[in-house]
Structures
1.
Amino acid sequence: MIILPKFYNYCTREGNVLDKEIARGSNGTIIFEGSYGARKVAVKRLVRTEALVERLIQADFDVGSEEYNVHVEADGFNNIVRCYGRECEKSFVYLFLELCTCSLDDLIRVCSPSFPQNDCPESGKGRLMSVKCILGDDVTLWKEKGYPSPLLLKLMRDVVCGLMNLHENKIVHLNLTTRNILITGTTALCAKLSDMARSKKFRGDNSSTSHLLRLMRNYYNHYQELPREIQVCNIKLVSECIKRD
């Protein structure tokens, strides 16, 4: 079992990691608020164990290197979270990322009519209440009868734009969820894709194309297993985007 120390204003060579935790991921990953130079950032701290590092070195890459490389490749793309730098030490790797207001998952929860009595985890209610205070009461995602609001349609277009930028450069995200779509701004909201840890860069040869088709088939099969109501809802949202674009 890995015991992770808690850092308070921990300094790397160029960055500063504050003790304010934003989110947690798998394998001991924690995202903190921090700074990189004079810029406020989100600091993604990845764990480096000796066994993991040895295995990755044999494969000719390090913890977070693939994710960082995808960010470098996608730097400057619209609707992709920016990565400003990467630093390594014995136990951790730090990625310094664009600091966003919240995730799409957070936004959906705080815009729910049942918030804060809905099913959000007790441990996260304080953070969600802060998001609600930042965004105010004027942010709405749905109109009457459950139709998407202009803001929701705009955020969906942002996501599609981000995916198009990745795909045009032969990058596949492979882990697109509401938690990995981040929202920037407080009044004019914008959606950006984040968490490139599972992303893949394809060379475009037959082996890569075949692999991509297998991945697409797996996602299609997963979609087919979703409840019918969710499938219909997704189709309606996409249709609205197309009609209004």
2.
Amino acid sequence: MHGIEQLVNGPVTTLLINIRDPVDRFVSAFKWRSLLFCQRDGEQRKKYPSEVGKKDRVRYQPHLHPQAACYDASAYPKETKIIQRSYHDDINKLAESLCEESSNFKQAVEATKFISHAKRSIVRWLEFLVDDENASSIKPQGLNKFMAITLSGRNSSLSGHTHDAVRQLYFDHGVDEKTLDSLMRHKPTRTQVVSEKIMTHSSHTTGKDSVLGSVGECCLSRFLEDDYRLIQSMLGEANNTKAIGSLKHVHPIIRKACEWGSLTRQQLCRADLQSMLRRRARFLDRSNGMSCRDMVSGGMKPEQ
């Protein structure tokens, strides 16, 4: 993670982080990368970089224009092979392999290390706040404000939430609303317009029929269990979900993740985090000792 030293020792004192349901985040990352890679048969998009001239490289970058261009296998050979050949662009196949009882578990875990956006869990991004030794090393002039920007089915506008968080930071530093509106009133550049489109994430436009089944959802929830425990830590013990315990030794600032903005916004932030936990709680409750496949075949109905 960039800027760790500045957050630990100063002068950077504020950290904003997007918190999305860990399973949704992983599935979205897999499908996004799957979309960006050229298919071996019947591909109609321009292959990048082999079919894109140097003067058009900016115009046809796949991550900016996924409907017009795709990465050929030479761009990301290992990742392409994993997604297309090992798992056939099927997130459910990978998810089920991530069950601890799967004979392919070790291979699947290794595969996740090469899938961009999915290879780093939320805990890994914030390891300097959850590792016992590192969490105690933050200096007084370092990090003192931790702001979670939560995304849920209720509202998935990352740019909107980020805008609100930035406005709050200005207010916290004594900038009045009139001055702030003047500072933020400008015509967006082309880069900003493109960024806005990318922030909405295009993984839902893959056109592929890969769907996460109940067994795969359970396996993936358990594989990402520490992320859910971190979310529980953000809520604090007062909001404890019975099936999911908090992480130990987290920095106290983690528990202040939702303590920014208006009271309404703080309540919505907590509601979003609680919703993420409720969605997966039945799979993360291991008290019955059941495997994911036994749990699902036993008649457990998916939560609506």
